[in-house]
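Lay summary. Proteins are chains of building blocks that fold into shapes, and those shapes determine what they do. In this project we predict the shape from the chain. Here is one chain we studied, written as its sequence of building blocks.
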Amino acid sequence: MPTWFLPPDFTFAADGPLQLGTVITHPKKPTLVLTALSSLDSGITLPKTSILTETNHAHDKSHAQSNGFSSWMQFFAEASASVNTDVGSSALLSYGAVDHEIRSFAEPLTAKTALKIATLPVVQQHMASGMFSKRAVYVVSGVRIAKTSFTVKKETGTNHTVDLSGSGPPIPGTVPLELGASMAHHQEKSVTDSYKTAPGVVFAYRVHVIRYKRAGVETELFQSKGAFMTGSRRADDEELPVMVEGTKEELEEDLEEENDYMETSIGDDDVCISF
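And here is the predicted shape, written in a compact code that computers can read:
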């Protein structure tokens, strides 16, 4: 299932750091660029770029939660009271309709290319800086560009409800009466913010992960890490880098980073992750 990552904001230009072949430290840190493989001095030749256009993209994501509490009390076996409290919050984020230009590699990265990336001095230095194991690095392998400006709307809300009720002892008389009373209070607040982006900004991006594992180099794009393996095990059983598609499962295997994210479905097949 293709996985896309939303940038922290929509200010990344199409010719900025989030381009095909950019090596970053983590998908949630797109500004921490280790190297750009598209530069002439990288010594690495990337596949040709494929460009597709998808029209009229509009997406919404929402989140709501509610917490309730209730208590009941009885006094002298004749009077009683109860309290019910409910506190909730909600959030809605929507993106206006816009055409997307999708840029990706026309061909899979080769095993030779993956090895060259892993042996770049700046990449080696970062991978060796892990506390628990060797760090992973992430190569931008797909970019969605919003061809025109679109509207971003964010709405947050809170609600608070309290219900009080009670009853007293019966009043003596020909027809005994039982006293009771109830009171309710409900409060809601909401805040809405919206703005229009500049045209030609990065809407989302895909990555491939380079991490170490005792195996060959797996480089086929747009398939799971179990798709196929290339290369062979060295005689000294030395660890070799593996390149796999960046999914939420791969993020959770990265022990060097805290991965607190929200997942949203886009269309029938794609998944979008925001941090």
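What the prediction tells us: The CA atoms of residues 118 and 124 lie 6 Å apart.
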